[in-house]
Every structure is written in C-alpha cells, then in structure tokens.
Amino acid sequence: MSTRFTLVFYVPMAAVEACKTAIFAAGAGKYPGQGEYTECCFTSHGMGQFRPGDAANPHIGQVGALEKVEEARVETLCVGEDVARKAVEALKKAHPYEEPAYAVFRMEDF
C-alpha cells in the first residue's frame, strides 16, 4: 500500500475552485478503494491574517499593514509521495499568494 498524506492549505475565497482544480488534476483527492472516489476534500471557512514584510510583493494588502482576509482551509488526501509533491507544485502555481500557506502530513495506517 502506498503511503498516504494529507495536504492542507489556505486560500482566499476567490481562488478556492482554481486551487482545487489544480490539485485534483495533479492526483490529489483520489480515495483508494472499490468506489473510485475522486475530488474528495473538506473545505472550511475562516479569517486569515498576515502582515507583509518590507521585501514582500503581496497579492492582497499593503507592505507593513495588517491584512485580514476571508479564506478557506482545504484538506485532501494524497496517495503516494509523488502525488503529494505534484499536488503541492500545482497548488503553488494556481495559488494567487506570493507564498501560499500549506502543510503536508504523513498519515499512519492502523
């Protein structure tokens, strides 16, 4: 069985669908098993915040100013390290932020 990973990322609401489309095209969101489910994820909404530093080129907001943005947190399954890496690469290309916030967690099979 391939190692499973969870990819979690935060994205402004206007770019949620573009980012989901990109990671799913890279193989994320496919649940292994008889049902052949694809494009599986969980999306929750919240408020993100950041303050761009002097060297930043922010997509939203101004350098030095605290910015608060309605964002989505998206969690999805990646089966295999290659899929996780391709999904992160696709996310970085599709995401509007200079530095997207994301995390990849290795899952254990019990």
Query: What kind of sheet is the major sheet?
Result: 4 strands, antiparallel
Spatial order of strands in the largest sheet:
2-3-1-4
- Structural shape: elongated
The name of the CATH architecture is 2-Layer Sandwich
Provide the low-confidence segments as ranges: none
| CATH fold label | Alpha-Beta Plaits
Distance between the termini: 12 Å
How many helices does DSSP assign? 2
Derived structural class? alpha+beta
Give the topology string: H per helix, E per strand: EHEEHE
Q: How many beta-strand elements?
A: 4
pLDDT averaged residue by residue: 96
Percent of residues in helices comes to 10-25%
Number of domains in the coordinates? Answer: 1
Signal peptide: 1-18
Protein name: ATP phosphoribosyltransferase
Keywords: Signal
InterPro entries: DUF34/NIF3_sf, N-reg_PII/ATP_PRibTrfase_C
Characterization of the model:
By secondary structure, the protein is of the alpha+beta class. It has one domain (4-106): 2-Layer Sandwich (Alpha-Beta Plaits). The protein has helices at 16-25, 81-94, and strands at residues 4-12, 41-50, 67-79, 102-106. Strands 2-3-1-4 form a 4-stranded antiparallel β-sheet. The mean pLDDT is 96.
SSE diagram, text form:
Elements: E1 4-12, H1 16-25, E2 41-50, E3 67-79, H2 81-94, E4 102-106
Antiparallel strand pairs: 1-3, 1-4, 2-3
